[in-house]
Batch of 3 targets.
Target 1
Amino acid sequence: MSVVPADVLPGGALAVEETASGGPVAELGPRARLWPALAAVYRAQLSRARVARIPLLFVATFQSVGIMIMMRGVVDSRGEAQSVVAGSSVVVVAFVALNLLAQYFGQLRASGGLDHYATLPVPPASVVLGAAAAYASFTVPGTLVTAVFGCVLFGLPLGNLWILLAVIPLAGAALAGLGAACGLLAPRPELATLLGQLGMSAALLLGVLPPDRMPEIIRFARDLLPSTYGVEAYARTFGTRPDWAVVLADLGVCAGVGVVSLAVATLAYRRAAVR
């Protein structure tokens, strides 16, 4: 048997180490980097959830379309129509990214599924970000269908639909972070489901109803909801001369909340995975 000198190994490190009892122990490989690990988790989550989540996405889209049809006979101004269409479109994102992700992480924690991820040499952030990105991806078709249907129903222009390419990921990141945090911090999966449902209901009621008809205290609660800024950013683009600086400011709020909420979800994952 030939012996390879230690100094010719990559980095000069030994391939095996001797334990106190004299037995060899294989050296563990390096931990995966964030972005390759995130891409792997994203692909795995996307393929796992594709079949199970498509019916739920259809329900979310049908729900938003039904809301717009009901509101068609209620709104009496162009500004209110803009709020209804923008809010109904973002509700699809809230249903999947907030509600379903809270349920998923709640069940994963209760069933011991986090132990599987804890054994993988991947950063905790990649697990949270990969799952959040996969769930947010499912909202793209439903959001686009809802937005196009709403514009046709209320006679709104279709020229600035491209702004949804920014609204969906940014609002989705903020809501997905909140959903993951609720699922990971809730002591029981039933409570995680309840928190997800309450968050989605808040996004539905506070995002779809025209703000001009809300009491002052309800408007304040609306301003605390991160999806509100995605709704406002999209609604502002229906004007003849949109104020793009304000639109970018609204999207910036979504991005900031997304960073904070995903960081909180990552910390919650670390805490839940070591228990």
Target 2
Amino acid sequence: MDVSFLGGPHPQRGVGVVAPFDFALDRELWRWVPDEVSLHLTRTPFVPVEVSLDLARLVSEHQTLGEAVRALNAVAPEVVAYACTSGSFVGGRSGERAMCAAMSRSGELPSVTTSGALLEALGELGIRRVALVTPYTLSVTRALKAFVAEAGVQVTGCAFMGLTRHIWRVPYRDVVAMARRAVRPGSADALFISCTNLPTYDVIPQLEAELRIPVLSANQVTMWAALRRLGTRAVGPYQALLDETARDWPALPEETQEHGEGLT
């Protein structure tokens, strides 16, 4: 069959993604990406270290990032994203900015990181108080709280799991349970679910409907910020960050407001 009349395939715009060696949620990233955009993923080299501050530092070294970005240059992406929350907040705000600069030097193209994208998203939504959910240990969670506080955002609640491996295996029900523990009624303007290896795509609309605040996740903000650099939009079902119409929730019935139903 002659298909030459189709004239395709249509040109694809590329987003390069540098992920840690243990990243297991490639498919989740794709769910936020419109049809005209392709993701080109590469991973940092394996190191035999469990999830910790030490691992965060190892997978975010500038030489490692530079080599990964240079490998992506072969497919000519228009932007590169570093998809790791802990690796991009472990050095504080100055460390995050230095990472972006190092990636941009290696690829001569715009660069974003997950933690930088988080701050960008909080600014976009005007968030000054945030609750945090993490799968991390206490020390890694404290480093995230310090990063957010350094940006002038108050952390009003936090729940963490203490995991050091296999984070991608956490079921949605556990993510939802942590969110309910972290958010006290009326205390937070938004919830952030950390770690690009933690599945979140399908729980965001559910949690926003229940908690009635924007719910951000690591993979969501990474894709949102990267696609923004291309002048296009991330896609997703009724998420406040992606859709302005999803930022207005109808008022709760008085009885629900008084008793905080669904938030225990």
Target 3
Amino acid sequence: MAESLLAAAVARYIGALGQHASPATVAAYQQDLSALCRFAEQREIQDPALLDTALLRTFLGTERSRGLGARSLARRRAALSRFADDLVKQGILADNPVALLRTPKQPSHLPRPVDVDALAHFLDSPHDGSPLAVRDQAMLELFYSSGLRLAELAALDLHDLQTNRVRVIGKGSKPRQVPVGQRAQHTLAEWIACRATMAPEGETALFVGQRGARLGHRAIQKRLAQLSVSRGLPEHLHPHRLRHSFASHLLESSQDLRAVQELLGHANLSTTQVYTRLDWQHLATSYDAAHPRAKRRPSGNTP
């Protein structure tokens, strides 16, 4: 059976996406747009020019009725919108039919930061000194020291690491430089010293697995979960929780929201506000303390 025009358009888009997006994003969008292709095939729709708001609303409604959650639906919509934007650029669609579609509001699932003392005890727990344990310690310290995302840490190469900072590629392929604390510098130096026992010559990845290849996302998540159990941390630990702890602890000490925003690589301050559980009262207090006219009384001739 010949490939439909829609399936071909999706394949071309996914191929182009792979040139600049992360493997995780490509895989997610592939899954989302494959679901669209199956939905369209069931309705004998093969031409991407026939994608309209009514059809895509029905598609998302069908996905919701089969149990897809708000977060997954939001990602489905994002994939549809990006694909539709591409079709507009190709002249296949006149405008983006996804613009009028809305998905259910996503619930807020912010991880609770790990207590400072509990996290310090966890990070200071002794290990057996093996290359694997040294590598794990370096990853833990770097996650907490620099607030990296899982994908950012996994993608690090040796040349990205300097003495007191690291260069990462964040969301949207935006590079940024973040500082590396002394404890993390020390553990990273220990890892570099023994890395050759695991990494073959020519391997550029900073963190590698026992077979010498770049350590994947799932492997990193699994190691953190195992370490939280073996070191007696009474709660589940994952990379995003370490990043959230970094942001929360830094903000509590510095009260510098803008600095935390830059370190986290957030494009918008509102993202940092939610991420660090800031409330309106905190912002209002900062405003009252800093703005030159926040507490200034109006003059008597004010109408």
